[in-house]
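Predicting holo structure, PXL bound.
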Amino acid sequence: MLYPQKCVAAIHDISGFGKCSLTVILPILSAAGVQTSVIPTALLSTHTGGLPGYTYRDLTADMLPIAQHWHDLGLSFDAVYSGYLGSFEQISVVSQIMDLFRGKDTLFLVDPVMADNGRLYAACTPEMAQGMRQLCGKADIILPNITEASLLLGEEFYDGPYDREYIQDLLRRLAGLGPRRVVLTGVWLSGDSLGAAGYDAACGEYSFAFSPRVQGSFPGTGDIFGSVLLASLLQGQTMEQALCLAVDFTYRSIERTRSAGTDPRYGVNFEAGLPRLLSELGLGS
Ligand code: PXL
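Done. Tokens:
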């Protein structure tokens, strides 16, 4: 039996160096057999996570014309996956792109990339939270870390360790913004583990997945996590399976990088994990 290839439209920036956003999303989704088309939101020399200086070219004016062209060509997508947006204005552009590609089974995955560890990213502004809240309301799945969850809910950020009740309460309230499923990253209940928690509001089910914790900050790992999660869901795996796979793949990428002694700001070694990922997705020879 022949299955049609899954198609994703990915709306993220291109950070030329440093392995985040499209430079990790594209290879991971492609390796997982997903045909991936891209709408770049901005072109940067590097990510904004710790390297001194970066160039920045805003691509807002190109985004809707690209999407409109695809729409005119009659293209459709199994999923639209948005992440780092270069400006407040781009939030409404992504919202319009979602309207263009809304289909019966189109999955809208919104990663409200704005902040981490209690701090906004360099190019993000506090008013983005309000717009992101609305965009999340149109999504099927949202993927905030705990800092972004606090911004979306208009609350103060608390550092962990967290208890399960607090995490479940955050998940339920985030689902109250509109998305059916919520995946929260950067969840830790004790000092030696780190992972993610999921909630499906349709069935009221929670899932948790953890890995050992590696100290430090690793840019790009949210995008790696999101791509593996999406690949797994498109492959028909359950939320629990997707969460476990994404946590494990991200952890292995971080641990490989730590043990090699690579500067974390240069990005993690996810490439070496791709063959194993394919077999865990039931793909490959
Ligand atoms: O991975 C999130 C991300 C994406 N794009 C850019 C970033 C970051 C996080 O720092 O700086 C440009």
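The chain is about 40% helix and 20% strand.
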